Structure formats: C-alpha cells, structure tokens
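Open question from group meeting: does this chain pack into something compact, or does most of it stay loose? Before anyone orders reagents, we agreed to write out a predicted structure and look at it together. Recording both the input and the output here so the notebook holds the full record.
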Amino acid sequence: MSDQEKNALEAYDGSQIQVLEGLEAVRKRPGMYIGSTSASGLHHLVYEIVDNAIDEALAGFCKHITVTINPGNSITVTDDGRGIPVDIQPQTGRPALEVVYTVLHAGGKFGGGGYKVSGGLHGVGASVVNALSEWLQVRVHKNGQIYQMRFSRGDITQEMTVVGKTDHTGTEVTFQPDPEMFDTLEYDYEVLRTRMREEAFLNAGLTITITDRREEEPVSHTMCYEGGIREFAAWWNRNKTPLHDDVIYMSGSKGDASAEIAIQYNDGYNELIQSFANDVHTPEGGMHETGFKAALTRVLNAYGVKYGIIKGEDKVSGEDCREGITAIISVKLTDAQFEGQTKAKLGNAYIRTLVDSIVNDQLSTYLEEHPQTAKILLDKAMTANRAREAARKARDSIRRKTALGGAAMPDKLRDCNESDPSLTEIYIVEGDSAGGSATQGRDSRFQAILPLWGKMLNVEKAREDKVIGNDKLQPVITALGAGIGEDFDLNKLRYHKVVIMADADVDGSHIRTLLLTFFFRFMRPLIENGYVYAAMPPLFKLVRGKTTRYAFSEPERDKISAELRGDNANAKVDISRNKGLGEMDPHELWETTMDPERRTLKRITLDDASRADEIFTLLMGEKVEPRREYIEVNARKAQNLDY
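Structure tokens returned:
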C-alpha cells in the first residue's frame, strides 16, 4: 500500500461525514427516493446499498462485493472496503455509523473528502434503505473490531456495540424490506443478477458474487471482467453477428473527469447505447451520449468524404451512423449532476466536450489504421441512409393518401363510435374467427376490433421500409393512426388502450411476441407510456347449478372449485378447459375477456429497455443456437405456466 493510500485509509473518519437534513419524509413519500413502491422500488433498495460498496471500489479500496437473497427475501450485501467510519461525527456528537443510517443526506460524498467519485450523489442510500426496512443490521469490520448496530423502520434498536474481533475491513448490511411500504416483497434473482453483472463490467477486475438462498439448492454466480467495458460490448453482441472482430476502445481524461467508450457494430438494424456516469446507468442519456453521437457522426462523414466513399452532399445522418451499433459509454466525474433521485440523465455540460474530443481524435485514428473496418462501417451507414430514404418516401405516400382522401381505415377494422382516444380501446385479435366473436360481443361505443391473419413479419430482421410496406402490419399502423419510427406521434394515437388478444397456446404466444417486437422497435412510446396490454382469457370454466365462475390458473381453479362445493364435498362442479378465442361465443368472450368490469388485462411495461432489447434479439434474431439454449434453460420454469 502506497503512502497516499495509507493516508486516505487513515483520513476516512467521522469528520468526513457531512449532515445536511433529517430523515422523516422518506416513509411518507418513498417514491421520491426510490422511484416507486412496486417491484422496481424494492430492487432499488439493493442498488442503493451496493452503490455504496461500488463507491469504495471506485476509490480503490474494495475488490469483492457479495449480494445474497436470504430465505424470507431479506438481503445481505458485504464488501471488503474500508468500513463505514465508527468514530464520533463532529456535527452531531454521535457515531458516524449511526449518522449514516439515520440522517438523510449524511455521507462521505458532500465534499468532506471521503470520495472523489461517487455514484450515490444524493448520499441518501443507507438512510433511505433503513427507513424503508422492517429491520436492518449493519456490521462494520474496522480497527480490528466488529461494530454492530440494529434498526427498525429507521429507529435504533441496538446502539453501536463491539461484538467481536476481525482481521480485515469492510461492511456487511442485512435488511428486510418493510411490508408496510412495498406492494411486493419478492426479489427477482435475474433482475439483481443483471444489475450486478453490469457493475462488474463497469469496474474491470472487481469481483461480484450474487447468491439466492431461498431454495434448498442455492443458486450463485460470480462475475469478474478484466476487460471491463470491452467485454461488455462483446457480451451484448453475443447473440448477434459482429461486423468486425475487435471492440473499438477509446478513453481519456481531463482534470478529475474521465471517460471510456467501447463500440462494436453488428449486422442488425437497431442501435444499443448503454451509458453510465459513476457506474450509475443513465437510461435517458445526457451530455455524455450527446457528445458521443455528435463525434461519431462527424468522424464517419469526414472519413467517407476524405476517401471518396461519400460523394458531394450525400452525407449520412446520425441515425444512419448508429444502425447496428452497440456502444458502452462510461464516465467518471466528481460533481455528477443527475436529473432526479433515480439518476436517469446526466447534465454536466463539460463531459460532452470531453467525450466528443476523445471520440473525435481516437476514432479518427482507428479508422485510418483499420481501413477495411472503416469501409464496412461506411457501407453500412450508406445502406441505412438509402433504406431510410425509401422509408421516408413510403411514409410520405401514406401521409399524402391520408391528406387527400381522409384516413382510409383497414377493411377489417370494426371501429368504435367514441372519438375521444382517452376513452377508446382497440383489440388486435388473432384470426378472423375470434375477430368475428369479438366484434359481436364487444361494446361498440368504445371498443374497436382489428383481426390479424396469416404469418406476421418478424421486424427484428427487417428495416423500416420493409415494415411500412408489409400487408400484415400496415393495417395496424393505419388503425392506430400515430405513424411509425421517427414519425411516431402519440398525440395522433386513436386509442389509448391497445389490447393484444391471442390464444393461450404456442401460436398465440408467437403472435404476441411478433406484435410486441414490432411495437418495441417501431412504436416504443406506446409501451413506454403504458398503452399496450395483453388480454388474459381464463383457462377454466367452472359451473355448479346456475353459478358460473372462471379461473386463470390451476391453483385458482382448485380454489374456486372448493368454494363452489362449500360444505358439500361431493357436490358436482363441471370444470372445462376453455376453448380457443375463436371457439367462444360472443357472450362468453365479452364476459371473460372484454367486459371492463370482469376482464383481466396485463399492462406491458419496459422497466428495463436494455433487458427487453436483449430478449427480443435472442428470441427473434438470426442466431438459432443461443435461442435453443435459452429455451432449454428456461423450459423448466415454464412447465406449469399458462401465460
């Protein structure tokens, strides 16, 4: 350990913990601090504690982090960092450990010198998790001793106590989310594993282990990537076909700010840009993405003009340059300015200049040194440009037809009478037979029906110009009325509920997946704004005498059957597996699947767009082997699922 590291280790004490304000508002308005009290907020608790450990890694003091889901869905996070200070914090006269967990905006991230770079900008992580936990225990290994504190819903239940001796440093936090605060307490292992894998990629050489101990046989994964974001870009392309074998890597710094960028193109048509600031994912981008995009477009155009690949004024647009790109942008800075507690967008203007400069200089050099790769990238951008022009002409043709002849709706559309989009819904139905039943059974005042027929285009393998002209998708585009791709306008959407209604079988699942892929790629705001739903027809019909009930799963079927029998265990209950949608009579379809008072609709959400991108690529892309492996691994989980 160098003298500088020793000084930093010794200097990290209670004087570096700064107090800004109290804690009480967290339990009153938890959404302000963790986004929501749904599953995403529940998982956010884990991220806040892990972020504190990551900050220790960024400071150079942590090499291994473990995350464990315990039986009962409590969480334990450990790190081998310096350990939270336990001496007296000067402003409060209380142990720094206590201050960190009981006072909002208390931490080593407010100019006290504890951290130069920190993802936990707001410094509320530990105290917020504590406030929203039924109980929390923290143990700090420091100064050769183990210090312990316990809390309940933010209140101290055990003062800081020395409970043993230790030969290492670090922090161990175990907490149980409060059932009074959250809609669900069930942690999703794959969601947490995805986040931990992301953190491991972003911190080259850091080891992160995640374990699920809720079953008899624990599941565990250890992740460490010496190649950092280079490996991250290659990992995203593992189910795609890269256009060049090497990952283009660029990095640089100015003052306390640094940036690294990794890019690799594939032969697909979609762009994937993952950006991070101090290891915090910025899904809405920000200045680092802006700088990257501007420089990428400038460099490719300059190279193309210089070598005669691009002639005259035929320059390629930013979208053309990014077709098929997988890019990872990771910046580190001392005064990260995020928009909102969930840190979705980075606002520091100077980081745009830094990223722009790095990409401008280093990508230009790379292209000069790799002319074959440069030509491949320029050819792809120019092909994208021609396809985009074809798509534009197709869109213009549709606009002209609409302007001249009114909105010519599809022949098969059975529209509703209501004209206010906020009050209307459209059922996109699999097959003419089901479409006929739905048309007869619907409430025509506000429900429209659009039957689909034949094999739908897999848009994962098609550019926009092919999608616009597809005879199976054009009726959907026209009926919704909001356009497609870059022209999509939510203000023109004709229905605020777009309901996919398909059978609960393999064919129905395929139809749903194809439609969702289409919406995801070309009408993403539909999903992002919560307008897309899946109808959930019941699987079973149960009849006893004049009483009819419906069940959506086998456990529910058994429960309803018992209720219908009541005290008479031998009473006969007729149970039938529901037919396909097309075989239901209009009354049944209305009663079970379309009546707002009784139906079940599942809203399709994009909690994690990058995860959705990965799944769509895997399930709908060109490569067969990764899809087969995914199905083999996950088939067991789906055995007893009806949806």
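Observations to bring back to the group:
The chain is about 40% helix and 20% strand.
The chain has four domains: 3-223, 229-387, 407-536+604-612, 540-601.
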